[in-house]
Design brief:
Mean pLDDT: 91
Radius of gyration: 34 Å
RNA sequence: GCGAGAGUGGCGGAAUUGGCAGACGCACUAGACUUAGGAUCUAGCGGGUAACCGUGGGGGUUCGAAUCCCCCCUCUCGCACCA
């Protein structure tokens, strides 16, 4: 043992010990209860950043704590290894994406090991490994056979910079989530996963996720966006056989529908005006809309615009003919791409009606005021009582919705309906570095899935990275040209690869049996480990990865691969790491390299600061001096143990003894600290306050002077306290804690120890400080026995000199007491 | 605009049930040790000479409010014509 705290030396020593002993290996034949802890796996970008340090430090505290608590902990790590940066790097420097990726993985793995994270490295996986993605191809084929994977021509979000399609979830405010390039629309044949089939279950099961932050659940619920309403057919006046179907959530306002508007992309948009006087105007409008859509980012400050088609349809309820407009605010992808226009009760319709002079018909009465069509300045969108609505007049909106829906069904005019905002997940990517979609196109047999015994469709390795001509796979003849597995005729291969979010949608299940090479998952082991008990990651995946993973879990369940409905029981979304008021990023030039910290202060210091500076869910403001503070604490602890080592080692064991009167406070403080840290670990993962409590206890112990320490009993309790500190610190700073534990003469390794229990009896105090207030203001303190009766406390309080000066000559109205806390003397006014 | 969250010293943050506001740490100040200090130790550290005033602002409930209720302001995040 040395005088100076030398983190590098002890950290590599303990990392080696853990590796040799395989301390963190998890097996399924363990009698203890299982606990599956997972942090979102990293993209192997090159080196770890502060966000990783924070995320994985949080996870490691929980992993080590749960082991001490007697759980069989699974804590795996892997690599989300497919994706664009690898391919872009390949194009830039002529390296193969595989080489670039694997090199990054090996460097980052070594960095994570240097942080001392307690992973079961025996389960490591990389998604670019064909032993991983082959199973994903199998899932794809199973989904294809069930109609859950399908191909369709669609308008997609295209990013020119990434040269690929993006899913709806990957477009953030019209920009690409990865590179911030403006996204444009493009028509392409694309593969989709039918996530909409699961919309209702994904929504319903949000209620089961009581261990998720409300914020994330709200975002998911909104993203799925369920609307209850009705579809209503409005027959065309010219051709009563034909009709336009609208979707509405406010069928109670149908009597106020004075026009109908359809999206510019609606199939009838041009059709209706063909041959009429309106045709020219409609064509012009459609052209204009198309242009504007592509040149403008902010869709929200759009003026409402439209064009009359020249056609009319019949409002089936009023039997009045109403004009059909094309309107720029109607979305083709939502509902039926057509809406009924009710200007009196929908703000958009109101604005549109104002511009085009369409009639406003009030059909809902407000409870508190009189609405008049020619006076209102905005639509009345709340519910109320139906008026001017034929036989439905007098019903509340709620009753009206029900009865109108029933009437619709009776008359065959429409039906009750449910619509979702959620769209199917577009998974085709026109890029090389991803899992190939296992489909073959044959002229005779059309789309044929690659037979299972021919999987995997291996991503060809020898390919030139020119960066030109779009997807590289299309240029590779020997990959593209195949024979049809069904008829043996000439055929071609699908050249799109899958969205990398597909890989991350099931990796947590693969960790349960990563060595299984006959099937994607070993159901027995998967059932043992799943669901993940605690998942930790950035909130930026609130609707991306977390929604996809939930969807995939349900699909895999339905295909019989696993048994849980939801993958993640508890979710902790950690905040970002901020410096100088902005998220750390290369472009802002405010990054702190974790490697620098490890080299200079050691991993324990980096971990301690990341955990101490803020509670996990909040953003963490990086502060270089704060890091030094954390380092200072560990150095002080080290020095204290070293300087008092002989005395501590010779001190008697006092844990089970009753301390003498003057040491009761010390024992109480020790047990209070254990209680506090335990609660912070269990209930809310507020490591910052737990660490603060440990520091506080250490401050008390380290303040003892030579004279005090010379007493045997004091030394005994100090030893007890220091040892509790070391144990409590172990999950946070495992290396230095392990070393101190060893140096205090313990043979058994700290990582095998149980978490300390606090002694409720030791928390009890004999006397307590009671705060005395006069009119709610703090005026003094008294010390009384804990079992003192109220009368006595009141007498003592009134006698306290400072208190007396405030109540002298005043009349006391009453005295309020909170047991063991405070006395409030209320004076009459 | 809608939805969610948050506003506490110079800074990061404590205060778990309405009961001592500012734990713990950083920065700062003074002192000690020292050839030296970006090391270490000791003391101080919300404002105000004080009475007092202080948890974004204003009102309310209460013996008592950072905490509960109402109104307003600011910031962050998410969604953004979803019929």
């Amino acid at each position: 043992m040395q005088d100076r705290y030398n983190p590098q030396e002890i950290e590599s020593k303990w990392q080696e010990i853990w590796e040799n002993k395989q301390s963190f290996r998890a097996t399924e034949d363990d009698p203890r209860p299982k606990y599956y802890l997972l942090e979102m796996f990293p993209y192997p970008s090159g080196q770890i950043h502060m966000g990783h340090v924070r995320n994985y430090s949080i996870g490691d505290v929980i992993a080590r704590y749960k082991r001490m608590r007697g759980f069989n902990v699974l804590h795996p790590m892997g690599w989300d290894a497919f994706g664009l940066p690898a391919e872009n790097a390949a194009i830039e420097r002529g390296d193969h994406p595989a080489k670039w990726t694997l090199e990054n993985i090996s460097y980052m793995r070594q960095q994570l090991k240097k942080m001392g994270f307690s992973y079961d490295w025996g389960r490591e996986l990389a998604t670019c490994d064909e032993n991983y993605y082959r199973w994903e191809q199998l899932f794809f084929i199973e989904m294809f056979k069930r109609g859950l994977a399908y191909k369709k021509l669609s308008t997609v979000n295209w990013c020119d910079s990434c040269d690929t399609v993006l899913a709806n979830e990957q477009v953030i405010e019209e920009l690409c989530w990865r590179c911030d390039q403006e996204v444009r629309e493009k028509k392409l044949e694309q593969w989709f996963f039918r996530i909409t089939d699961y919309a209702d279950e994904l929504l319903r099961d949000c209620d089961k996720l009581t261990g998720w932050p409300e914020k994330v659940l709200t975002m998911q619920r909104n993203w799925i966006g369920k609307s209850l309403g009705a579809t209503i057919r409005f027959p065309l006046v010219e051709e009563p056989e034909e009709a336009i179907t609208v979707f509405t959530t406010r069928q109670d306002t149908v009597f106020g529908a004075t026009f109908l508007s359809i999206a510019p992309e609606h199939p009838l948009a041009l059709e209706l005006s063909r041959g009429t006087d309106q045709e020219k105007e409609v064509r012009q409008f459609l052209n204009q809309v198309r242009k504007v859509k592509h040149s403008h980012k902010e869709t929200h400050d759009f003026e409402k615009e439209g064009a009359f088609t020249g056609a009319y349809c019949l409002n089936p309820f009023t039997e009045e003919p109403i004009p059909i407009y094309i309107a720029n605010f109607v979305l083709s992808e939502y509902g039926t791409g057509a809406v009924m226009g009710v200007p009196a009760h929908d703000q958009r319709d109101f604005e549109f009606a104002q511009i085009y002079g369409l009639p406003i018909q009030i059909v809902i009465e407000a409870p508190d005021r009189l609405l008049e069509a020619h006076k209102i300045m905005e639509a009345y969108i709340d519910e109320g009582t139906m008026i001017s609505s034929g036989t439905f007049t007098g019903l509340s909106s709620e009753e009206g919705k029900k009865e109108i829906a029933e009437h619709l069904e009776e008359q065959g005019w429409g039906k009750k309906d449910i619509r979702y905002r959620l769209r199917d997940w577009g998974i085709s990517r026109q890029r090389y570095w991803g899992a190939p979609i296992p489909i073959i196109y044959c002229e005779k047999c059309e789309m044929v899935p690659v037979p299972e015994d021919q999987l995997p469709v291996v991503l060809p390795k020898h390919i030139a990275f020119t960066g030109e001509g779009g997807s590289l796979l299309t240029q590779l003849e020997e990959f593209v040209q195949v024979t049809c597995p069904q008829c043996g005729g000439p055929a071609t291969r699908e050249t799109d690869t899958m969205d990398t979010f597909v890989e991350s949608s099931w990796y947590f299940a693969r960790y349960a049996s990563p060595d299984e090479n006959r099937a994607p998952l070993d159901k027995k082991r998967v059932d043992y480990w799943l669901p993940v008990d605690q998942y930790i990651g950035g909130v930026e995946h609130a609707v991306l990865h977390l929604l996809y993973a939930r969807f995939f879990t349900k699909v895999l369940r339905d295909m019989g691969w696993l048994s849980v409905d939801e993958p993640f029981v508890n979710l902790l979304t950690q905040g970002m790491v901020i410096k100088d008021g902005a998220k750390m990023s290369k472009s802002k030039g405010n990054v702190v390299d974790p490697q620098f910290l490890i080299d200079r202060f050691g991993a324990d210091t980096a971990r301690l600061f990341a955990l101490f500076a803020a509670p996990p869910e909040k953003d963490l403001e990086w502060n270089d001096q704060g890091v030094q503070g954390s380092h200072r604490f560990l150095s002080r602890l080290w020095r204290f143990v070293y300087q008092n080592r002989d005395r501590l080692m010779q001190a008697p064991s006092v844990a089970t003894q009753e301390p003498s009167a003057e040491l009761k406070d010390m024992r109480r403080q020790i047990h209070r600290t254990i209680k506090k840290v335990t609660e912070d670990m269990e209930v809310r993962f507020h490591f910052n306050t737990g660490i603060a409590a440990i520091m506080e206890l250490f401050n008390v112990l380290s303040a003892l002077d030579e004279k005090a320490m010379a007493k045997e009993e004091v030394a005994g309790w100090t030893k007890y306290g220091v040892e509790r500190i070391v144990i409590l610190l172990y999950p946070f700073v495992p290396h230095v804690a392990s070393q101190l534990w060893e140096d205090l003469g313990h043979k058994e390794a700290l990582d095998k120890l149980s978490w300390p229990e606090y002694d409720v009896g030791a928390l009890e105090e004999e006397t307590t400080i009671i705060v005395v207030q006069v009119n709610g203001k703090l005026r003094g303190r008294i010390s009384v026995a804990v079992d003192a009766i109220e009368e006595f406390i009141e007498k003592e309080a009134l006698a306290e000199p400072k208190v007396r000066s405030f109540i002298e000559g005043k009349k006391i109205d009453r005295v309020v007491q909170v047991p063991r806390r405070l006395v409030n003397i209320v004076l009459s006014r």
